[in-house]
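Title: Request for sanity check on DNA repair protein RecN prediction

Description:
We are preparing a figure and want to confirm that the structure record we downloaded matches what your pipeline produces today. Could someone re-run it with the sequence below and paste the raw structure tokens into this thread? We only need the token string, no images.
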Amino acid sequence: MLQKLRIQNYAIIDELTIDFNDKLNIITGETGAGKSILMGALDLVLGKRADTTVLKNVDKKCFVEAYFAVQHNQAVQHFFTENDLDADAEIIIRREIAATGKSRSFVNDTPVNVSQLKELSSHLVDLHRQFDTLEIGSTNFQREVIDALADNADLLTQLKEVFGQYSTSKQQLEKLQLQQAEADKEVDYNTFLLEEFTTIHLKPNELEEVEAALKLLSNAETVKQQLSSIYGAIAAGEEPLSQQLKALAQKLGNLKAYHGDIEGLQQRLQSAQVEVQDIADELERIDDGIHYDAERLNEMNERLSAGYKLLKKHGVTTTSQLLEIQATLEERLSTVLNIGNAIEKLQLQTQALHQKATSIAQKITVNRNKQLPGFIKNVNALLTQIGMPNAQINVVLHETALTATGADEVQFLFDANKSNRFEPLHKVASGGELSRLMLSVKSLVAKKLQLPVLIFDEIDTGISGEAAKQVGIIMKDLSTTHQLIAITHQPQIAAKADAHYFVYKLMVQNAVQTSVRLLNTNDRVHAIAQMLSGEKPTAAAIENAKEMML
């Protein structure tokens, strides 16, 4: 609820504080007294555009503060969480306009921008004026009204969760299908490339090893001749090197007694003889392992030729690089296969979630359809009651694609003259008709919808007598569960007030100022009597006013 409104240096208001009642607050006053100025000040809190023309004293800043008491308002709690603001049971919104024209906004003393201010205020205040585009024309609001009457809250919660899962699953499926489509473009080519690798079946370092072996085999005869010659010189000739070293080591041993360094030299010479003999043995082993094989030579040439073709084709130089390419091709083809399996699973999952969401949406549609006849009948009865006997409302459901709110769209249609030509509200309903229609609709759903403060600015224009009385009765009934603030010229409505505020002008230091006072019972009787019969109310008007207030 709006607990308090403080205004300073705005238009012809010097300083003003209004403490509101939590039920039906009525504001009256003569034309031009400043009722619209109050609404203009409230507009600043709601995030409307500000400029320096509203400053009463251009040397001082203007500010408007609104104090709200909020309990169990999920939309407000969500706003504070999303904007990282400290939530409290009392919310203070302040708007300041400096003499320079700069505007600043605060929520609980924390600076906010105008967009944030508008979002928050939309959850706190529902302001209805003549000629405003009211939220009753919103398809979202129309759907929420029918769903509230149909008690669809639990089903909508279920649908929102399941539809969210379905949407996520569908997005994942579409992403995988796109990946598969891209992969399918190359799958045939990659399969062909991989078959070339699997045909040759390379082993690590194979081409390098084959190249070395081929070089040796191609020169086998020359290599064997040279190896035999070297082996003979070392170990098998007339005077093999190995035997010469052995003999020299023995001679050197005979001289050990004559010099201390000779023994070490003898040992080194003996080691050299052993090493040379080992070399000879290794040469013999290598020579014995070399055999010229024409068939083997041909196989190796063919193998190397096939390998060189792959190296050239893929622009690499080593066997390991080719094997890396092979692994990449295998991974790509495996990915395509895995994507296919994943797509199949996701298709089943997505289909199941869609069926589940559709089933819930169908229940919601059934519930909505059940409410339409009674809702239409009740609203039309209220329209007649409040002075619109020729006006009719109709509600239709249009089938739509499945969403988080169901599979149909709720639309309110209006006929102002019983022509049976129903059109969307925004096309045919006037501001006054929309306001009174909104009052009728909200009076039906007030106990089921979490409504903010309802402010009606002269929605009674064009009605009087019994119709005005009925509007007052509806407002009074609605105020038992919601705070209402209404600006009115109708005594029948003013008589229903829980708190009656009178707006008036006064002269202060040769300047006109607007002020507001809360009327006591006697003052209320006098004010309502004036609304009935003029500046100087008659005794009959006073008695009539008292009767209205009962």
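Thanks, this matches our download. The chain has a mean pLDDT of 87.
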